[in-house]
Amino acid sequence: MKATLSFLLTLSLCWQSNRTSAQTTTTISSPDKAVVLSVSNTPAGQVAYRVTYKGKKVIEPSTLGFALSKPQVSLTRFTIAAIDSATIDETWKPVWGEASQIRNHCKELRVTLADQSGSGIQMQVRFRVFNDGVGFRYEFPTQPNLSHFVVADELTQFRLSADHRTFWMPGDYDSNEYLYNTTKLSEVAALAAIRKEKDIALQSVIGDNAIQTPLLFKTTDGLYISLYEAAVLNYPIMHLQLDKKTLRLQAQLTPDAVGNKAYLQTPSKTPWRTIIVSDKATDIVGSKLILNLNEPSTIADPSWIKPQKFMGVWWEMHIGKGNWAKALGKHAANTQNVKKYIDFSAKNGFDGLLVEGWNEGWEDWFGNWKEEVFDFVTPYSDYNIDSLTAYAQKKGIKLIMHHETSGSVTNYERRMDAAFQYMVDKGINTVKTGYVGRIIPRGEHHDSQWMVNHYQRVAERAAKYKLMVDSHESAHPTGLHRTYPNWMASEAARGSEFNNAPTLGITPEHTTILPFTRMLGGPMDFTPGLFRFQLNQFDSSRTQRVRTTLAKQLALYITLYSPLQMVADLPENYEKHMDAFQFIRDVPVDWDDSQVLAAEPGDYLMIARKTKGKDSWFVGAITDENSRTLPLSLDFLEPGKTYEATIYRDADNADWHENPEAYTIEKKRVTSKTKLNLRLANGGGFAIQLTQL
Length: 693
Fold this sequence. Notes:
alpha+beta
């Protein structure tokens, strides 16, 4: 690792006095000078920051501060006691991911603030300025006038310069499984959006002007701006409250049962508030800013952490072929059925098989808000776990455990060690956790400080047993897979299971927005790979359908990255299209390099990825409900070498609604000088495998 770090005490560095406004301002730029951060202290004592990109406005002067309830004090007016600066330039290697190494290069400014109200409290604001944006957090050092304290509100503001086009979800402390809305910022109407999506089991309505992060803007002068957060630990998830008149957004933290936001003690620090900005949409998708704001891995020897491609006894329960609960009949997690999935998985070279509905309790798990539903160690009588684990091992397959907590988190924490030891004893090394329902302890939300700490406890405890984690219905990810690389994926957004939702489901544009928003925080268990599009296969009354073409389902393995990548459909549906299924068999789940070739949020996305340790590439492209042709230059290939391109694309007559299963497979020889023009059907895509000859 190459790293340089230099601190300078710079009370005068970049410090300017503006006599007209009688305020003091300090300025720091990104390494390439494109991003400029200014921090000002007004005569009234307010501290505000401002961000520009290549001279264009990103964040107008926005104030910082806190309201504490214990001690009861408002931290809004400060004297700047000190300013330190630094340069960080290092390269680090992730355990797995979209690239084999990542550069962390930024300028840092640390501003020490003394409260003017007489409390004697000091805090620091640490800013890091990257070539593609800014991250900042609050830090409360050890000090005589502050020890244990309670946060009533974080008063961080983000003031926009104009009424930008905005990609947003309504605020909800318990669910992030919404479609994105696209409106002007002033036209946000969160409650109306919630009413529109009646298939969401809404648990916590925040208000008409409350919206979730991540939040994406596109400005009329050509900038793309993302607001999000990084490294959320021991702190609640941040939503944003919009003032439509001033276009000011203010942090709105998820409260606990009595309305408090966070319980802290010095020394402590908040998560990073992030602003990613570029005049290229491709740079937003490719940003590593959030990862770079997280701490290095806590796992000294991560050799046991392995990316996986897996199938699941899962989708058939969503479409009426089977059930989770044994008493309802058609129990899917029975020994013979699971063996069929193991056979198919082994035959096609996959790593694992998820089995849901294996354990007792599914008859009485949903909506009852009970403490004791699952014990996580008692299989149903028709699920012979010992014979199945032995059978899977013989076939080279690892079973993946499913732990649905039904929101009873205290029950799960009491039983976690026994459940994890049970997995180890059965030779199972990956768990999918679930948090459907209202949280116990009562009054906590999925996004509260208590639950954020729980997710961390699961990752840490799982690591002690050398287990990998895939969390569902959890808070949105914030780059913590760098720190806890065994926490490999999360759902935390509307995934493919919503194709079976009774109303809106998954719209064609949804997957072209996720990489600009939710996926900036980490991999998503979206569960791609559906090959049957009308979901009435086992229930003729079902009208739901998948709103993509088959070729787009292949492309999602590239555009929606996960190191735990599911092969979501049923074996019998794949057997009808084994030529197209070959791409799913071949596509890796770990990469040496990733390049975003073309992108526009809500419209299209094209990404190329290089296989880990091999000179082969895969390309995926997707579009929204509109057909389009995308030019593709293969100049990322090694010059002077020839590759065989296997192209899986929409047929000329393909259409997500009328003809989704129409695709064409063709092979051709290509080089780095080759240029292609490929058409994507409505709701379509293409996927390409490039193998060196």
